Amino acid sequence: MTAPALRVTPKQRAELERMARSSSLPHRVVVQASALLCAAEGMANEAIARECSTTPDTVRRSRDRFEEGGVDAVGSIGPGRGRKPSIPQATIDAIVDDTLHTIPDDDSTAWSTRTMGDRHGVGKDTVARIWQARSLRPWRVDTFKLSNDPRFEAKLVDVVGLLRQIGALPAMAGA
Fold it and tell me: Which domain holds residue 19?
């Protein structure tokens, strides 16, 4: 049984044609757009699958998603599909906890993605993704550190005075 031709508005057709010609969109989007254009011409799902080097089931799912969500649904991955996360949540939690509450054993001042990855048996890119998703930047120091140099105050006064002389700092009232 051949599926009926997919109903596509002229505006949707123009957008699908743009997607199908694209060399910068993800491959999945280009293939689905091409398949949907073939479906709009009335081609059978099996013929579309051969033409687009995919499976008839993929063509059916693409048609269903397009009918439900229009052009915005092209390239989307259905819920429950795609590669599942391979890192246990406990490992992710341990990486975050170590990042926030420990320092490296090698006398470094902050964790690097490589040292944290080695500690937990994951790759540096995995650590980077975990840190990025949680806005963690262990190499950045968010606190002000005062020097323990006994001549610090005198040096500070000299630097501030110099900066005021060259106009880099505004004069302060009462100073």
Answer: 10-73
